[in-house]
Sequence to fold (237 residues):
Amino acid sequence: MRADDHPVADHRPPHGPGHGRMATGVAWAALLLGLWLWGRDLTDGGDLAEGPTTGDVAAVGRPLEQDLPAAHAPLATSPEGRPTEVQIGALDVRAGVVKTGLDATGAVDAPPYRSPGAVGWYAKGPQPGTAGAAVLVGHVDTADGDAVFHRLGSVKPGQPVDVRRADGSTARFTIEDVKIYDRERFVPRKVYGAQVPGRAELRLITCTGTFDRERDAYTANVVVYAYLSKVTPAPEG
Fold:
């Protein structure tokens, strides 16, 4: 499915010299501000599991009744638990994962623009498979065209997302919800807080909506919610 077929279409601007870079940069600024606020909540002792789960958000393709697999027990945090690759079969995506941290201003770095196929893992948060919500972010586009999460909004509940870890194991997550958050009403605790306390969860995030030419930014973020449902150990040998 193309992004243009989605209820919230990705109307990208023409990729003139430097224009796509500016657009994605501003869009990332809104997203990274959310991550900064999330970190501040943690520092201030805020409970990210609290707060409403409805509001200025649209559910995408959520089934009325669907049996999803049981949650797998969280894995322990370990030096070799970092993610190295993410695979989303429904999107034909198989991408390397790069570690992101904080830049000089205290904001979270996005994946490099020169690597539109890369996915960034916010390494200050949980490792994928451990308790809490691990965050993976990717560009929807760059100055060179479509990027790794261009069609992220088309995934459906029940579909798997596989994250390979540095120890060779694979953590499989099952998508349970897909939401669109308006940029102006982005509430960090709704996005980054665990839906079920103590459960291992995953967030996949990118920009979406329409492109606001006056502000040089997209109007929304698509957020995919998933939880750990299976762990495949590293192959022997």
Observations:
- Residues 3-232 form a domain with the Sortase; Chain: A; fold (CATH 2.40.260.10).
